Structure formats: structure tokens, C-alpha cells
Amino acid sequence: MEDEILKEFLAESWENLGRLDSEIVGLEKNPGDKELLASIFRTIHTIKGTCGFIGLTGLGAVAHSAENVLGKMRDGALAASQVTISPVLEAVDEIKFLLHGLEASGKEPARDNSDLIRRLDVIATGIEAALADAPVTAPLATASSVAPPAHSVPATVSVPAAAVAAEPVTAPGPAKSNGPALSANAELTGEHPTADGDGASRSVADLTIRVNVDVVDRLMNMVGELVLTRNQLLQMVRGEDESKYAAPITHLNRVTTDLQEAVMKTRMQPIGNAWSKLPRVVRDLAKTLSKQIDLMMTGAETELDRTVLDAIKDPLTHMVRNSADHGIETPAVRRAAGKPEMGTVRLNAFHEGGHVIICIEDDGAGINVDRVKQKAVQNGLITEADAARMTEKEALSLIFHAGLSTAEQVTSVSGRGVGMDVVRTQIERIGGTVELASRRGSGTTVRIKIPLTLAIVSALVVEGGGLPFAIPQLGIVELVRLGAEDRHRIEKIHDKAVFRLRNRLLPLVGLDDVLGLERKRAETDDVNIVVVQVGDDQFGLIVDEVFDTEEIVVKPVGQLLKSVPLYQGITILGDGRVIMILDVAGVAASFGGIGGQTSERDVAHEGEDDQSGTTSLLLFESQPGTMMAVPLSLVARLEEFPRSAIEQTGDRLVVQYRGNLLPLLPIEGDYRGTEVDPQPVVVFSEGAHSMGLMVSSIQDILEERLVIRMQSRRAGVLGTAIIDARATDLIDTHYYVMQANPEWFTKKPDLKPKRVLVVDDSIFFRQLVTTALENEGYRVRAVDGAKQALRCLDGGDAFDCVVSDIEMPEMSGWEFAKAVRERGWAELPLLALTSLAGANQESKAMRAGFNRFQQKFNVDRFLAAVDDMISESQPGQQEASA
Amino acid sequence: MSGTAILEQSGQASRSISSQLDYENQYVSFTVNGQLLGIPVNAVQEVLNPQAIAPVPKARPEIAGLLNLRGQIVTAVNLRRRLGLPDRPTDQPSMNVVVRHHGESFSLLVDEVGDVINVGSESLHPAPQTLDAHWKSVTVGVFRLERRLFVILNVAALLSLK
């Protein structure tokens, strides 16, 4: 995001500055020109404003002082003369110099402009006479200010020679006094040969043009037609090896693809463009409402089509306003609730399976579900009886009804109830969905899912039930083809098919079954499985046949088909056939295989009592008549062993399995499992270690909202949940894995999963580290900056270990470590994980307060270090962070 | 009558304002299950011979599927089902009366397409009280032609499947 804003700022500033030079020169010749003066003032004012907004303090300070002088001139308090204007021109030159540096290095060059600023301020405050009396001193001062002592010029600053020469200001030479300034600039250029004489890095203004959106749209439509025609031609020559058209068509194909990509790119914009106004909106809101609100934005670089971008701008602004207005409480209320006074609104965008997901999350009061129900009853939306029966999720969905606002006081900010219903309509219009989750006291999350583009996607064409369908490539993980000899790897649990794909159980569903089509594939055929990703879950779609991947032009689903949740669009194939584009999330939801609402990872981050979303549960009998359950995601495999294969070694049961011995355990307190033959076994794995749990029978796989009603004291039981209207014990897999392999866990006597806070501004590394830790069973909270990490800690979040990057914007890892130690978390293990290298970096890290220092990124060494640090710090750490 | 006849007429319409006024009285006629039905000629984009229609699984039964009209996707509505009539034998393909509605194209699948009927000064009568409520909800009214009744359908109502 920073980059985009910066680029825009640069482009805009160059454009303005180009005009400015001639205007200032004109002003000098014609000091009475009010219009000219006003225009110059505006330009400088704009630059100053933007500098403040994006944190360019040096530039901002120069612009600010220049603006003061110009303001005085505009107001008539100061005469525009050579003496007063020269420093302004100097300031303009300085601004240019800083902009060049900024453009070249991405950072604001560090310059000491205090002298120039002081002189500008002196003029602005009316000591003009003093300057006029000593005309000789001015040029001298000028020279020294623009060519500062060499040591203060950072090496990164470079001024392209061409740019300096091209500046019109050099030619007219507005004042002799300005001469030294320019020569000083030229000298700098000479000193820094990095300036590209060949113009390879032309300034942003030279490299961008503004094009009317209609032109781009027309281009896109034409490319769409071209793609279709190309597809038709390809279809025609397919199979004709000798065709004389083959070569030109191949070429046409390549050019079309490139053209299409290029045009698509012109339409893609980072979502940050839709966000750019939000910091200001939130800041103003916070002021009006006397709240403290921090707006955090991640994933602003996520690109999407501009039509989609335009469509979500307003709903997004509305929802952020909502969060700030209704969500975040006043500091007093927050303090009373034991929360930090500063509330946080987080905006996060990322790609997921051909869609863009945008989350708006606040740590405010959450939605008062009772109040929503009450209001809905008052407004006649539902009856009292409905209200009593409603689940929390259903009640929350009432928010999307027209005319329902739960703000106790109607404020000027969010208005009265014209909110979420409009938001939802707008988002659904572009084929998106909105979901809302809220927990009383801890905040609200709105999750918007919108299509990436409305135009062209790459898709796999498959056949199911005798009909062709397209599946967007973005949602596809892999293709698996099973020959007859591998068919047995597909197993049935109750009536649900599952497939063992490497180390996980993949729920399977036939495309023909989902679509209610007649089954055309024979039992003896090879099985084609398209593994697709929905949120953090995967499932396998069994199709009859897999054809080619094609670039397809996505056409929207018509009015009469919108209600079918299985399709995200329609397309026309090269042969003219109309086929439906499957929405894999819709398919998943329709067979109830996986939740898809709130992803598993979100749940993991939120803590175990998050009640939104559903979980796939494996239901089994521990003994006939006694039902128990375990989340399917924790199950590695299901096996059946003949009784004769089970051996006794010492007091333990084992079975030979895949060349290893698999320890078997009965359910705690139910040692009757071994009465069945063959013995059904649920296999769990942690790390490299597995164990089998002997159960009486496997019953079913259910999709349930998992709410643990009662914690259990019974060993091996996590708690009791209501599943399928029955109280069912959930087993604690970790307990059993540990029981079966006590020696592996001597280092981890604590059954509670360890919590790790990961701090890294790079999404990539955050994800990498998080995944590595989660695979090891850690509970991870990942944040994108040190300040937020401190807020987590201040907010009372307890962690067993913190892993932090060093080089981060806003606050570095060094500062972070110091802050952590200063705030009294003396024992909290801190691991520096950085791309910096060298012994002095390491010792610097240790001095700052880190316990360990590791270079990015060796997973095994990293995990070993985290493990070591936690076991060393236990047990004192819990109190330390509490 | 073929589709070209209608297209020719609409071509004339764009040329002369007076004939456009005449449109007020012109209706495209077609039959479904032996019943003579019509819709205003203004509403009709074109008439097509039987087309390849791609079925859409899990769509409501009235939706016959989608067809490709020169790169444009058209949703085909089975008018028999929409009107609660029995399906046609599969060996008798349906004609397409293509209409525009809210910026989208739809094809009404009918048994046969007839002439464009100019009802002249004939007045539109409300649907008879005894007409089935479902039919009534999609009917604008009835013209009493010399030999038979001409039932005018409400295109917007036909296409709002809720």
C-alpha cells in the first residue's frame, strides 16, 4: 500500500511542480497577480497536506514554511519581491530534491533544512526588512542550505542529471541569488553517479498517463470477444496436425493471451485505493465521538478489478464507520471493561480461491444479540416466539434487515439503520457475500467475499453427470486420478465418502450428486478427484472426466439463476456451448462437507470458544450406545485391524502398520473396545508420531457448530458438546497421543497448547511462521507490527513465547524488545527472527532484550528454538505475562 | 411466421414514428398447449428456431437452461411449466421468443410461433374471474378475436419467479 500511495503522491507532485516553477517565475515578474499567487499557494498546500498524511516529515516541514510565506503574500501582509520569493523557490527546489530522493530510494532523504525553514519563518513572521537590509547575506545562506555538509547527505540520495537540467527554472534563472543553489544541485549530481543518464528510471510522472476508464472498459470488452474467437479457432484446428492455419493460430493464441493479461492488468488496482480515505474518516470520527481508535490495514496491495473496487468503496466505508461508531466503545467504557483505551479497527484483504476476502474487525463491544432481537420484535420483523428460538447466528443475520439499528443513540455518524441492508445489497449486486460474526464484549467481524474480477479467469473444464462445468483454477489444489487398484483408498464413514490424501482425510462428494444429476460414471472407471480449497479446508469433487484448462470469459449469472448458490458465473466455450462456472464454496456448503463460513484458522486465532462457523466432527461409539466425537481435522486416518494382528508388548497393545508399530489405546474408562473384530481404530498423529484409538464403531461425520457446554475433568475428554441434539463427549486427542508415547513428550508436560505471538510485517513470513508453529500444535496469534503486538500484550493476552522480526516499519524489533522488557515482561521468551546477519546484529538483539536470535528461515532450527525457550522459561512465564 | 418477419417489422418501426404508434396494437402470437397467447411486439427482441439449450442443474424447474445467442447468454424459460401445463413430448422441440427485461435477455419456450396480430381498435378485457389464480397473476388481459380468445401475458410477471 505504501508504495501505491507514494507513487500516486509522486506523480501528483511532479505534475504540480512542473507548473509551479513557471508560475513562481511569473509571479516574480508580476508580483500583483493574485490568481497566480493563489494557485501557487494551493499547490504547496496540497503537497504539505499529503506529506503529513503519509508521514513525510522533512518534506512536510519545508512545504509548511513555504506555505506560510505564500499565505502571507496571498493575504497581502507580505509583498512578493525577489527577496521574499527566493527562499520560496529554494523551498520548491528542496522539495524537488527530496522527491527525487524519495523516488529513487523509496525513503525520504534525511536532510537538515532547519536553516531554510528558519529563513522562511523569519519572512513569514514579518522580519522582511531585516533581510532586505542585508541582501548580500541571502544568497550565501542559500548556498549553504542547499549544499549541506557532505556527511548529512545520505548515500541513497541521487538527483538524475537529466531531471535537473530539464527543470525550466534553470533557464529563466529567476534571480541571481538562486544561482548557487542550482550549482550546488549539479555538484551533488556529479558526486553521485548512480543517477541514470540513460533515463532508465524516468520519474513517475513521465511513466504514467491518465486514460479514461471508458476506453479501458471498451478495450476489455473487445479483448473478451477476441478471446472467444481465439477459442473457436483453436477448437477448429484441434486434432488437425497438418493444418496450414496451425502456426498462425498458435501465434494468435499467444498474442491474445498476452494482450488479455496486459489489459486485465490495466484494470487491476490495489484495494488500498479504496481505503486511502479511511484513516482520515476514522480519525475524524474518533475526534467527534471522543474515542480512541486505531485503524490497521493489511493486504492493501491485494489487487482487484476496478469495477469491483468501485462497487465496494462505499459499503466498505460504511462498515468501517459502523465499526468505529457502533463497535468501539468510549475510553471510559473500555477501561471499565479491562480493555486498552485505544480501540482497534482492522481491515484485512487477501485472495482466496478466485475471490477477494475483506475482513473488517473491531475489538469493540460486539453486537448485543438480545438487543437485536428486541428491536426486531419491536419493528415487527419477528415474533417473540421466533426471538426465543433463534440461534445467535440467525439473530445476527437480522442486522441485514432494513430498518434495524441497534445504536442506543442515533448518531450523525452512522445514521439510523440505513446500513447493513444497503451494504449487503451493494455487495450482492457484484456477486459477493457478507457474513457477520460477533462476540459480546470482544468485538465484531464482518467478512466480505467478492469476485476478483468480473472478466476473464483460467478454469478447468470437467464433466459431471454428463454435463460440462468450469472450475476456476484459483480454487483448485490438485487433481488426483485413482485407478481400479487404488479405489479402496476411498472409504465410507456412514454414508460419507472420504479419501486418504497423504496425511489427511479428504471429504469426497460426487459432482453429479451435488448437482442432482444422474450418475454416468461406472463403479469400475478410474476416479477423477478435483481437490478444491474453501477457506482453510479442502474437499474432493469426483468428476466423470477432466478436460482442458481454458481461459474463460466470465458472464454474470442471470436474475433467474441467482438463487442457486452453486454457480459463480456462466461462460461460453470455444465450441459455442454454454457452461456453468462452479462456485466451490457454494458446492461445499451445499453438501455440508465443510464449514466454509469462518475458516478454521480464524477460529484457532480467536480461541477455542469462538462460536461462529461449523466443524466437521467424526462421531464414534466408545462402547455400544455411548457416543463420542472428535473434530475430523484432527483425525489422520481410520483403520480396521483384525483382532489377530493386535499384539501385546508388556502392558501395551500395538499393531504392525506401514512398517512401524502403532501403539493402540482404548478409550479411557471403557476397556471393552477389543471385543469387536475387526477392531475399528481412529488414528491420530502429532508431528511424526501416531497412535490408534480403539473404538467400538465408527458412526458418522456431522457438520455441527461446535460449542463446548461443559469442561470435563475426565482424563482424555475435552468437554461435552451438544451434537445432533445429544450430549456427546469430545475426546482430547493430544492426551491420547501423549499417553501412547509418553517419552516423546517429556519436554511438554503441560497439556495446554502453547501460545505464540508472531510479529512480522511481511505477510509471507507471517504465514510461513504461523503455519510451521500451528503444525506443531502451537496456538498462534500473528500481527503485522510491533505496536499491535504491544497492544496484544497490554491487553492481557498471555503468550508463552514471542517471535519477532527486526526490520519493521513504525517500530523496529529492537524497540519492541526494549518496550517488552521495560513494561515488565522480564521472563517472556523473545525470539528475534530476521534476515539480518552477523555477530554484532546478534549481540545487539541480545542487548535489546531478545533471548535468541535466528536468521530466516530454517523450520527445524526455529521450532527447536521455540520449544527450548518455552521449556526453559516454564513455569515462571505464565505469571510473567498474565 | 418466422423470426425474420418480426425483425423486418421492427426495422420499419425505427424508420417511421407513425408505425411505432401502431405498435400499441400489435402482439406477437404463439401457442402453448393449444392456447393462443401473445405479448406486445415491443417486448420481443427476436424469434428463434429451436436452439441447443444447456441445462442448469438445481435451477428451478421452469428454467429450461441457457442458450448462446451470438455470444450473448439467454435464459430460457419453459412457458409450459411456468403456466403449470404438462411438458411437451421430447421429440417436439420448442420455439424461442426472445424478450429483453431489465437489461437481460430471456427466451420464452413456446410450442409454435404465430403471426403478429394487430388487434386494431379491439379493446383489452380483464382476465375472466374464473381464470385460474396462477394464470391470472401472469395475464394482462384478453382480446376477443373473431374466432378465438387471445390471452396477453405480462412479461415482467412471467419472469419474476419468486
CATH homologous superfamily classification of the largest domain in chain A: HPT domain
Number-wise, the strands of chain B total 10
CATH class of chain B: Mainly Beta
The portion of residues forming beta strands of chain B comes to 35-45%
User: How is the quaternary structure best described?
Assistant: heterodimer
Largest Cβ-defined interface:
A-B, 23 and 22 residues
Number of helices of chain B: 5
Give the name of the CATH superfamily of chain B.
Answer: CheA-289, Domain 4
Could you describe the largest sheet of chain A, including whether it forms a barrel? 6 strands, mixed
Number of domains of chain B: 1
Query: Could you say what the CATH architecture of the largest domain in chain A is?
Result: Up-down Bundle
In whole angstroms, the N-to-C terminal distance of chain A is 35 Å
Helix-and-strand structural type of chain B: alpha+beta
Mean pLDDT value of chain A: 74
Radius of gyration of chain A: 33 Å
Characterise the protein shown here:
Chain A has 882 residues and is an alpha+beta fold. Chain A folds into six domains: 2-207, HPT domain (Four Helix Bundle (Hemerythrin (Met), subunit A)); 213-267, Helix Hairpins (Orthogonal Bundle), CATH 1.10.287; 272-451, Heat Shock Protein 90 (2-Layer Sandwich), CATH 3.30.565.10; 456-487 and 507-591, SH3 Domains (SH3 type barrels, Roll); 614-745, OB fold (Dihydrolipoamide Acetyltransferase, E2P), CATH 2.40.50.180; 755-881, Response regulator (Rossmann fold, 3-Layer(aba) Sandwich), CATH 3.40.50.2300. Helix content of chain A is 40%, strand content 25%. Chain A is built from 30 helices and 35 strands. Chain A is globular and about 105 Å long. Chain B has 162 residues and is α+β, with helices and mostly antiparallel strands. Chain B has one domain (3-159): CheA-289, Domain 4 (OB fold (Dihydrolipoamide Acetyltransferase, E2P), Beta Barrel), CATH 2.40.50.180. Chain B is built from five helices and ten strands; from the N terminus they run ααβββββαβββαββα. Chain B has helices at 3-15, 17-23, 79-82, 133-137, 155-159, and strands spanning 26-32, 35-40, 44-48, 63-69, 72-78, 95-101, 104-110, 112-118, 139-144, 149-153. In chain B, the strands form two sheets. In chain B, strands 8-1-2-10-9 form a five-stranded mixed beta sheet. A five-stranded mixed beta sheet of chain B has the order 3-6-7-5-4. The chains are: A alpha+beta (882), B alpha+beta (162).
